[in-house]
Amino acid sequence: MDDFTFVPHTTHSDPVFDNFHHGATLGSRGYTVATANPTGVAEIIDDPENAGNGLMRLFDSASGPVAVSATKRASLPLPLVTVEFDYRFLTVGKLNVLLDGTIVDTIPAPVSGDGSPDSTNMAHYDEVFNTIAAGLTPGEMDLTFELVNEGDPEFYLDNLQVTNETPEPTALLLLAIGGFAGFLRKRRTA
Predict the structure, then answer these.
(1) Are residues 159 and 55 in contact, defined by beta-carbon separation less than 8 angstroms?
(2) 8 Å CB contact between 135 and 128
(3) Which partner from 28, 58, 84, 87 sits 20 to 30 angstroms from 177, CA to CA?
């Protein structure tokens, strides 16, 4: 989906990453960006630890509770969705992963504020979500990364991959059971 790889261009003095210029806001490249404060930003930056690589950066310089999110529309017609990326927190906080506005996972930053084993390496995230069990309808869907923190949040993301898989027959049965259970829950609350 987005790995923010450096692409040399002879016509630009700025580095370009997957057609993103350094410092380009994600809003100009197919993402919807929302911030709790005017100081929040989602952008592409040069990787400070790996020359020639680019990173998605979610950042807000404000103090107090803040949130910054970046959303991208994806075609996910099958029920099983795999979301995979590399990441690093530079501050204490959490990252919510949302599908169509529903939080499907939360990644807390370590107490140190660094999501990697040391100060330079990125941690890896790889999860499979059952959209039907989450009460979602497969199809066009928003994938959102929301950084939440008490102040000055900063988060890096790279090598984003989103894949849609056809489930095995046993998994199909489990999906059907999960979908039916969700249907029953909705009927009881209606």
Answers:
(1) no
(2) no
(3) 84
H helix and E strand count, the chain: 1, 12
CATH code of domain 16-189? 2.60.120.260
Residue 13 CB: number of other CB atoms within 10 A? 6
Statement: the pTM of the whole predicted model exceeds 0.90: no
Provide the 10 A C-beta neighbour count for residue 41.
19
Q: Which residues contact 155 (CB under 8 A, 6 or more apart)?
A: 57, 58, 59, 87, 88, 89, 90, 91, 93, 95, 145, 147
Pairwise CA distance, residues 82 & 132, whole Å: 14
- Backbone torsions φ then ψ of 3, nearest 5 degrees: -110, -5
Give the integer Cα–Cα distance in Å for 190 and 181.
14
SS3 at position 183: helix
Which residues, in sequence order, are bridge partners of residue 158?
86
Compute the distance between CA of residue 62 and CA of residue 64 in angstroms, rounded to an integer. 7
Per-residue pLDDT tens digits for 107-164: 988 765 555 545 567 889 999 999 988 899 999 999 999 999 877 778 899 999 999 8
Question: Strands, DSSP E only, in 28-135?
Answer: 31-35, 40-46, 54-60, 63-76, 80-89, 94-99, 102-108, 123-130
Query: What digits encode the pLDDT tens for the residues 97-122?
Result: 999 999 999 998 876 555 554 556 78
DSSP secondary structure letter of residue 175: H
